[in-house]
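ok trying again, last paste got cut off:
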Amino acid sequence: MELVRGRRSKLRKNLVLLGATGSIGTSTLDIVGRFPDRFHMVAMSAGKNVRLALEQALRFRPRLLSVMRREDAEWLSARVPDSIRVLHGDAGLMEVALIEEADLLISALVGAVGLKPTFEAIRAGRHIALANKETLVMAGDLVMNEARKRQVSIFPVDSEHSAILHCMMGHQQNEIRRILLTASGGPFLRTSKSRMKDIRPEDALVHPTWKMGSKITVDSSTLMNKGLEAIEAKWLFGLPIDAIDVHIHPQSIVHSLVEFCDGSVVAHLGLPDMRIPIAFALSYPERLNLMLPALDLFEVGKLSFEKPDFDRFPCLGLALEAGRNGDSMAAVLNAANETAVALFLESRIRFTDIAGVIADTMAKHDPRPLHEISEVLEVDRWAREAAFLTARKKD
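nice, full thing came through this time. structure:
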């Protein structure tokens, strides 16, 4: 595998965190706070939750803190020590991503906004802990080629991809037959197709296992999140999309499995706690003692697996189709999905319209190779406009 190059952690690692106030960001800071002798937060970005950003900045004292809006930056500047420089907007986000003393950047932004700062950090030679799956969905070939060119390691943060990395350690890539990517199934695993049109945003935002942001939670409810993860796994582990099989596993204890050419299968089990894969990405190849409860399989009692229902969850099939087509189609898929999910959360389209908006947008696009990030962003812009126009007909 080329995504991780087996380096040992230095005594104290300088970190940059993009998306500090999100679910991955807060879990990352929980780990940093537990191990102050191992990690130092030199720069952070946050969104609109400025009160939480203030609390985080006062505790971790980064040199740079960036937020989205100018007025929020001014509010924070009046409340943090002079040693913390507060920035805003795209320029502020980029300055945080490229701060020179960083050893590792944790890319925990949600959506396409994470692509450019993550890619530019790779170009600058920064190692990456990647939670922003859209970076690889939109531009996997470009990103992985740049990482190889710059000798940058990419450490997966998603629990499934971290599990795959665990299972592959010590094995050669040519020994791998397929990846078995597990999915909880989300809140509507047992919901009939006829009832899905009545699902409301507040219904979709209640996940049975994980606590996540609103966009990712909706993606989990449509199984789009698992489709995006399959595309991400394709690029991270260098396998064709048809060598990645999705298995529904409601207990969320087996985080993924790898099948080898001799027929043996290695599985990674653990509690459904994102601090486990985050800590492994921060400290690789070492492990941190997180003092979490032990996994009690007697209490779990049953580990079950089932095939995904592509009829009730068409978003998964659309994602796998985009992953097979490659090139620009995956970027179109991602942009159309982000647009449709945002409109659903605003109650402007129905839950069952999400897949329709994505399918119609993909049908209008002829996939082509992407050679520059600017081309990726242009495809993203086109797809968002096309998806919005499609959704207006369903509004």
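cool. The first strand starts at residue 13 and ends at 18. Residues 104 and 126 are 6 Å apart (CA to CA).
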